[in-house]
Amino acid sequence: MDEAETQIERAEGTVNIRKQEDNQQLLVSLLPRNPALYIPRKTCSTTFSLEMVKFLLQRGDFAWLCDNLARHEDSVPGVLKHQLFSYFTPDDLVGKRLLDFGCGSGASTLALAKMLPRTQIVGVELGADRIETANRIKSFRGVDNVDFLCSPSGNELPPDVGQFDFVMLSAVYEHLLPLERKIVLPLIWSVMKPGAAILINQTPYRYSPYEAHSTGLWFINYLPDKLTHFVVRHFAGRNPRINTSPDWNVHLRGGLRGGTEKEIILNLTGGCPANARVLQPTQNDVRDRAALWFSSTSQRHRALKKMIASGFRLSDRLWGTIPNLNLEVVIQKR
User: Fold this and answer.
1) Which of the listed residues 73, 108, 130 is the one where a domain comes to its end?
2) Are 284 and 325 found together in one domain?
3) Are residues 100 and 23 both part of a single domain?
4) Mean pLDDT of the chain
5) Cβ count near 299 (within 10 Å)
6) What's residue 5's pLDDT?
7) Can you give the residue range of the structural domain that contains 22?
8) The domain that contains 138 carries what CATH number?
9) pLDDT tens digits for range 50-94
10) Which end of the chain is more exposed for a tag (fewer CB within 10 A), N or C?
């Protein structure tokens, strides 16, 4: 077996890695030993080298390997591009600074760097090991308009991080505990220039009837916390390491409660919502947030989805919210 076709044995199972027919990518497959192990994605294609895949496996969770690889290949870049270029043109970001807060191992940051080669992008993450991983992937990709910085604590930004024209929180807000949201978001707001915009995506909507992010359960978003905790521990069929925890904060850290536009604005502005406004998309023939949601859906059941979009449009006008499964919002600092 050559270096392009290999198996890696671990306690949790086997990782199969082989070249695809075009010889330009690797196909990675996970074969778990424990059938109860929650694996969100069992196969993926990647442009990473075999050595990089092995490195990421050593640094991360076996069950999430394919999911993490996919974030660097297709899933995250598509989401960011769809949101960003529905609100702004590439020229709007030329010569500007963009903060990717909670960048993890750099998937969103490096995707932004590829889309915006004339924008200076700074990825910030709390874990030093993730920053090391991000820098290693940056070197592998040959990207030069990105810097990765490590926050000294969960309640601080890196010193001398500077001011920014744009901020991205991609699948981040839901993982902040309630107190952290009240501390960290004003710090982010303070490094945004007047007129700067913060883009938030891939965050579950707090009051969605179906909790798709963490548990796969219906209606628990409407239950009190104690009852929700009981229901999740006994009935959630996914991610047992989080969902069986007796510690409620573990569930919150896992992203259970999500957020709303109103909550995010209040946290950002320290309770002064007049200092912020929710933007509507104007690019790519999209006229409002409801139309943006509709443009991201599949071709199935289009008539029904148009009706849903009309309901979302009314909800946005009356209450300033789009009650989709996932929250997607762009907020400008006045």
Assistant:
1) 73
2) yes
3) no
4) 94
5) 6
6) 84
7) 6-73
8) 3.40.50.150
9) 999 999 999 989 999 999 999 998 768 888 999 999 999 999 999
10) N
**Residue whose tokens read 């992010």:** 213
158 and 37 in a common domain: no
On whether the CB atoms of residues 262 and 211 are closer than 8 A, the answer is: no
Total domains in the chain come to 3
Residue where a domain stops, chosen among 73, 93, 124? 73
Q: The whole model's pTM is what? A: 0.92
* Integer-rounded Cα radius of gyration of the chain: 20
What is residue 37's predicted lDDT score, i.e. its pLDDT?
87
